[in-house]
Amino acid sequence: MRKQLYTIIALCLMLFALNTRAQVGDYRNSFSVGVSGGYILTKMSFVTAVPQTMLGGMTGGVSFRYTSEKYFSTLCAIQAEVNYTQKGWKEKIETYDNGPVINPKTGVAESYQRRINYIEIPIFAHLSWGKEGKGINGFVNLGPQIGFCIGESTKKNYDIPYTKANTEKGAFAEQGITQFSSHQGRISIVEAQETMPVEHKFDYGITFGAGVEACINKVGRFDLEGRFYYGLGNIYGDSKKDYFGASNHTTVYIKLSYFYDLKKNKH
Q: What is the pTM for the complete model shown?
């Protein structure tokens, strides 16, 4: 935990240093505001492992960008955002033969997904190259991100999962199943996460993004970007007495943003 906090602090210092280097490069003083929307693919990194597939969700919010200098061919800026994002995970429930698990009580293949909604605040060092006033630019974003869980929901189609432990407890005796078969029931024995609510509402991590920007004079800027977020915080406790040693988010974003220059540098 301490090393992770040091990493966040180091990134914040890097952003501060970038913004104060205007004495070295050509001075800029531009401020832009924007809106964005996009699609994400997300999963959890659980230890003990939980088989999963990527869960899709939506993201959208507002953005603010201050450009402070041009250093050789690189435009240097600070970018901050406030976004609403749908995260979570979708379980990959399979038998030993990689087939679906048919729940004895419902008679249908088991499915489970957890949706966790966040307000996210990333702060980036925004570096771009290309045409400054119009045309096409390439850019990268790098920096820390924090998030606050504002709600969660569960979607599943069974009450009792078809696992070895539940079979041995007699959960499916009425259906005539008293012995577990890995060719019919779940190969994974991990199910605790399905009934555990989020314990840690605060999330933090590191985000890297890259994309292209189209600048249209007197209209604005249109950004298409791909991002990767790696969470450093866990949604569940991670001490020796807790069930999971890790439970952090891993997320891929595809975003389209529009920026309008409220204050534009003359060049």
A: 0.87
